[in-house]
Amino acid sequence: MKFFVGSPPEMAAFDARRDGWTLVPEPGKAAFMGIGLAVAVGVGLAILGVLFLCGTNIDALTDVRHIPYGIGIILALIPLHEFLHLICLPGLGFDGHTWVGICPAFGGICVLYDAILQRNRFVLVAACPAVVLTGLPLLAAIVLHGIPMTLVAVCYLNAMLSAVDVAAIVIVLCQVPGDAQLRNKGFRTYWRSSRTR
After folding, report:
1. In a 10 Å sphere around its CB, with 0-12 CB exposed, 13-18 middle and 19+ buried, how is residue 70 labelled?
2. Is pLDDT of 60 > 70?
3. What are the residue ranges spanned by the domains of the chain?
4. Degrees, nearest 5: CA angle 39-166-191
């Protein structure tokens, strides 16, 4: 595992054109963040609706007195969210291809992998925090007809944190064949057929 602060490393040894990789088309940074925001709002409202229908009291989410509590949960969620990405990587993220960084331009902590991943592994890595920290509490709310307020906050706030991950998953699933390999160079994602050497 390696660490960085600022911009992610460019991984100069990786030459996409020479090695037959194709850039996954993504919207520009502002558009991608806009898509992430739209996903966050939509998913957040859907989660609140499900929680409300399950009988969970969501009133505290709208009480301004709970803002410091929410900030505390976000500060705890960010490293946990990234840790869940990390443990889905080969070697539980503790090999020489994993990068953990503090990247203010990206919005905080991030995990990058500079080796090849199969498309479905890439999707698993991106989806894990959303499934564990949002999906499981939401499922618990449905089964148990409500959950404690702390889990409501975790579920809702992690849905916001997962919006860019969800947008990335949709982009990859819509544009990259199921048997493809993916590789990152900084924040750019490339793909090629698994049959390519």
Report:
1. middle
2. no
3. 29-193
4. 135
Local structure of residue 147 (DSSP, 8 states): -
- In 3D space, the residue among 138, 136, 147 whose CA is nearest the CA of residue 57 turns out to be 147
**Is 36 exposed, middle or buried (CB count within 10 Å of its CB: 0-12, 13-18, 19+)?**
buried
Q: At which residue do the structure tokens 């992690």 appear?
A: 158
Interatomic CA distance for residues 110 and 81, integer angstroms: 9
80-116 burial: b if 16+ Cβ within 10 Å, else e: ebbbbbbebbeeebeeebbbbbebeebeeebbbbbeb
pTM: 0.84
Confidence of residue 172 (pLDDT cuts 50, 70, 90): very high
CA-based nearest residue to 142, from 130, 128, 155, 161: 155
Q: Where do the H-state alpha helices sit in 94-148?
A: 119-130, 136-144
Amino acid, single-letter form, for residue 182: L
C-alpha 69/C-alpha 75 separation (Å) is: 10
Helices (H), 66-181: 67-87, 119-130, 136-144, 149-161, 163-175
Pairing of strands 188-193, 22-23: antiparallel
Residue 22: strand pairing partners: 191
> With left for phi above 0 and alpha for psi between -120 and 50, is residue 11 left, alpha or beta?
left
Over residues 136-158, the pLDDT tens digits come to 988 888 888 777 777 878 888 89
